[in-house]
Amino acid sequence: MATSKKLINIRKLKILADAKKPVEQFVGPEMKYVQENTMRAINNLMTRPGEFVYASGRPVRKGVYYHCHYTINFEEYFMTGARHNPKSQMIYKVDKQTDVNNYVSAYGAPTKLAIPSKVTTPTSDDYQKGFMKRYFAKKVNEDSRPFEISVDNFNKSPLYEYVQVVWYIKGGRQAVQERNILSVAGAESIVAGVGRLLPDFQYFQATEVIDRQSRVRELLGIPEPKKSQNIDNTVLPTSDSNNTQTAPSTPPPGFNAGSGPPPGFGGSGGSGGSGGSGGGGGY
User: Fold this and answer.
1) What Cα–Cα distance (Å) separates residue 239 from each residue in 189, 222, 229, 233?
2) This prediction's pTM
3) What is the pLDDT of residues 15-66, one digit of tens each?
4) What pLDDT score was predicted for residue 224?
5) Regions of the chain with pLDDT less than 70
6) Which of 196, 180, 79 is nearest to 138 (CA)?
7) d(Cα 275, Cα 119) in Å, to the nearest integer?
């Protein structure tokens, strides 16, 4: 008896648990394909008179909320509901010339809608020029951040807005900064948020700067000062070949001021006079 009551309680609990499980709804192949391949969606749209029909061909009345799916294969699908939910139904545009269809007709369908991000780094040619070109994209109609892309993906999908930035990377520091400020300001007016991706002096390489004093002397025509020679830590004046040699300021060794000039000195006429006087005493 106790066993039978226990089994009854187990069955009741199982029934209650099964009742709380969500009912699995059938998802058609088209709906499943859209769900598995959606790259982005635009929500909270509202129908206009005669704009859509259901799969049965019945018109969708005015004022019904719907949303749009864009797949990775460059397709767009419309469904009822402000956002995707289990009750969403496929609806079809009466006028099939949407923006995406017009783009495909004009340029052909690319393989994918999604654009990958790619950070561009400068090359040696860019440094020779002093600047590089960088490309950015941002999803339209979404509160998303821009990101850097390669030039190969620039303007490749209508789901993004694009901007090109000329980024200066070489030269005087102040000049480079001023030019980049102008470049970023122009890009921000097209795609907001690009400036946050461009740090000041990113990839910057300074050129050789002439010494300020040398530059001033060059402008004023002042020659560079001569450098002193250094021998055994003794600073010597620079030699000048045009300078004349001066007589020594000290007399040679053995000279005595009281005894007259040294022997053989050319100015000894006074001594010869004295010798004449001695010869006169021989008479």
Assistant:
1) 66, 21, 9, 17
2) 0.41
3) 777 666 655 555 678 888 888 888 788 999 999 998 999 988 889 999 999 9
4) 66
5) 1-3, 18-27, 96-113, 208-219, 224-283
6) 196
7) 108
Length of the chain (residues): 283
| HEC per residue, the chain | CHHHHHHHHHHHHHHHHHHHCCCCCCCCHHHHHHHHHEEEEEEEEECCCCCEEECCCCECCCCCEEEEEEECCCCEEEEECCCCCCCCCEEEECCCCCHHHHHHHHHCCCCCCCCCCCCCCCCHHHHHHCEEEEEEEEECCCCCCCEEECHHHCCCCCCEEEEEEEEECEECHHHHHHHHHHHHHHHHCCCCCHHHHCCCCCCCEECCCCCHHHHHHHHHCCCCCCCCEEECCEEECCCCCCCCCCCCCCCCCCCCHHHCCCCCCCCCHHHHHHHHHHHHCCC
